[in-house]
Amino acid sequence: MFSVGIDLVEIARIERSMKHPRFCARLFGEEEIRRLSPRGFPARSVAAGFCAKEAFAKAVGTGFGPIRPREIELLRAPSGRPELRLSGRAAAFAGGRTFSVSVTHTAGYAAAAVVGEADGGKRGPLPGFTEEGGSRLRSILRPRAAESNKGDYGRLLSVCGSEGMAGAAAMSALAALRCGAGIVEAALPRAIYPVVSLLAPEAVFTLLGLSGDGRLTDAARAALLAALSRADACLLGCGLGRGPAARELVPLVLREIRAPLVLDADGINLAAGNIDILKTARAPLILTPHPGEMARLLHSTVKEVQENREETARSFAREHGAVLVLKGAGTLVASPDGRLYRNRTGNPGMARGGSGDVLAGMIASFAAQGIEPFSAACGAVYLHGLAGDRCAARLSQSAMLPRDLIGALPELFLELGR
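The structure corresponding to this sequence follows.
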């Protein structure tokens, strides 16, 4: 058992801090804010909640270093009994264990105790949808009609993959299929078709021939233009490489696509050399850079990007008229009209090659189904992180793989009723 208590002096300090909105945003989760806000955030209840959060962080042996306080929510069950709801890193560090909590507060003191419950090796509750997150996804993902066909759920063109990076093309295509796209058409070099078709047999394929110098043949160019004309959305860049064909593909797709375009990975890296190329696009753009790619786009440094993530995302989205997904801990989604979403799902186990390919496929899938770009990006980012939290709880942060994220999607869609 781990217990934490604070006295009147500390309660008074918390009461003063409650006047600052940023303090509340750092301390409370979405459901806590919804329940405490109508009561004016009473200082003693807040103090008891803080004690519970700190006690949990001690119980899992980490303290608040890698865990955000808002990922540990102190709520009340219908019976009135206090309970902890965990998300993000807190859920991952819980490792599937359940924790009981008791709290108390008086006029001059607040305390909480947290106990990790032994359960004979059984897993505790897995990370689940928050009320807001589940509502967001249900609002953008319509139920599939009884009388419908694959054409009703969008055709995604995925221009991804190159020799040595077939896995990126396969994972992005699989993620898009798992997220409901009716047709995923993969346009890729003929050389990697055997690998990708084996890993993603449900996709259809447009095979791109390359000339001796690595450029697209005339036939490949014509086939790609035809594929672009029938697409409801396009994903460009996962595992694309930076060879002659890739350098030809990026400006061609940007210029010709008329449906929403998700630009990821090497698509971003190639655009960074001439950022004005984005102005040639006549379709909605969604860019998904990690901090290193964002720094290349801005000709800046990762340090500068990370020190001012929110303003970096907002200003880029506004200046270039694109939805920007700035990946990393607390992924941000910014829209040209000023909307900003800060994600709270996900964990460090997702920090490995391939996770971004899965996310890009998910965003593109939602866009192909007709979901407007900002909502498509926000919904996919949230669901991607929650899949990561499920994987961490089951497999550990060290052992989970990006392919496991795709494997976690079916049960999440079942829980959504979609």
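Residues 56 and 335 are 36 Å apart (CA to CA).
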